[in-house]
């Protein structure tokens, strides 16, 4: 068998581990193909299809406002980190 014209490289450690660990019951490879037709959706319409586990929108700017926390509500370690930054 000739290897002329073929590209041979040593596997990386990660690639080798996938090859070594793959079995008939533990598949270590993935693949997929998606075929889309038509024009792409408007970005906001695309984002409307998704939501957080709490049911909120993922659109930028729709995050709930964080409430300020007083020093009394924080652990001492958090206070030190907060005041250093």
Outline the structure in words.
This protein has 85 residues and is mainly alpha-helical. It has a domain at 9-63. It has 3 helices and no strands. The protein has helices spanning 13-21, 43-47, 76-84. The longest helix is centred in the first third of the chain and has 9 residues, at 13-21. The protein is flat. The N and C termini lie far apart (64 Å). The model has no long low-confidence stretch (mean pLDDT 79).
Defining traits:
85 residues; mainly alpha; 0% strand
Helix content: 25-40%
The whole-number mean of residue pLDDT values reads: 79
Tell me the total number of β-strands: 0
Oligomer state of the chains in this structure = single chain
Rg of Cα set: 25 Å
Structural class by helix and strand composition: mainly alpha
Q: How many helices does DSSP assign?
A: 3
Largest sheet: none
| Strand residue content | under 5%
Shape: flat
What's the helix-strand series? HHH
Please mark out the parts with pLDDT under 50 across 5 or more consecutive residues, or reply none: none
Q: What is the terminal separation in angstroms?
A: 64 Å
Outline the fold blueprint:
Elements: H1 13-21, H2 43-47, H3 76-84
């Amino acid at each position: 068998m000739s290897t002329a014209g073929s590209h041979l490289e040593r596997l990386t450690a990660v690639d080798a581990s996938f090859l070594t660990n793959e079995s008939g019951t533990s598949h270590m490879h993935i693949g997929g193909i998606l075929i889309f037709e038509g024009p792409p959706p408007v970005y906001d319409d695309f984002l409307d299809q998704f939501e957080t586990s709490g049911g909120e929108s993922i659109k930028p700017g729709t995050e709930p406002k964080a409430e300020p926390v007083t020093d009394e509500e924080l652990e001492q370690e958090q206070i030190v980190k907060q005041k250093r930054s």
